[in-house]
Amino acid sequence: MFDPREKYDLIFQIALSITFIFFILLFLGLKVSVNPYVSKGAREIIVENIQQETMELELPQPPPKPKIAVEIEEAEPEEENVQETIGETTGEIEDITLPTPEPGQVFNEYEVEEKPVLIKKVEPEYPEVARQLGIQGKGRALVIVGPDGRVVKIESIVVDNEIFREPIEKAALQCIFKPAKQAGIPVSVRVVIPFIFKLTK
């Protein structure tokens, strides 16, 4: 009688081989897809490679620049070398004669050919009252100097204090000038004589 316990090893190997062959055939014959485990509530994230197509933007072309008409001046032809002949001036230099002064004519100082020169100036007497009061001042006299160089007339006196008017008048009449000349002739001329009243310690 056949006792399977005595052939246990052989039976186990045969059964194992058959099982192994069965699974091989099953694997080859059936395409079983095994999905990975996904927990409930998990969102499936699919990453797709999206090829971004870059579009080359065509910028609008700037409008053409307006054409400006430029007037081009024609170059003037070079002037021909013109030789100018300057004629020699001929003639004689005429002597300018100054007009002869009329008798009694009074000139201004800037009009005469030779200006008068003060050769003797008489200082005015300092008024005693002004000295005691410590008054100082100044003035000037417009006088007419005759052909002999002496003051013949006082036309006006300007002072900053009337106390000095009389002393200036007396002093101006005593001044002596080298007379002014016009056309070589001594003439009468207007002259301004300044005076200063200043106390000395």
List keywords for this structure.
five-stranded mixed sheet, two-stranded antiparallel ribbon, 7 strands
Describe this entry's structure for a reader.
With 201 residues, the protein is an alpha+beta fold. It is built from three helices and seven strands, in the order αββαββαβββ. Strands 1, 3, 4, 6 and 7 form a five-stranded mixed beta sheet that branches. A two-stranded antiparallel sheet has the order 2-5. The longest helix has 22 residues, at 8-29. The model has no long low-confidence stretch (mean pLDDT 80).
Estimate percent helicity: 10-25%
Instruction: Count the beta strands.
Output: 7
> Poorly predicted ranges (pLDDT <50, ≥5 residues)?
none
- Biggest sheet architecture: 5 strands, mixed
Structural class: alpha+beta
Residue share in β-strands: 15-25%
Oligomer: single chain
Radius of gyration: 68 Å
Mass-distribution shape: rod-shaped
Helical stretch tally: 3
Give the N-to-C terminal Cα separation: 179 Å
Provide a compact summary of the structure.
The protein is 18% helix and 21% strand. The chain has helices at residues 8-29, 128-133, 165-172; strands at 106-107, 117-120, 137-145, 151-159, 176-178, 180-182, 185-197. It starts with 7 loop residues before the first helix and ends with a strand.
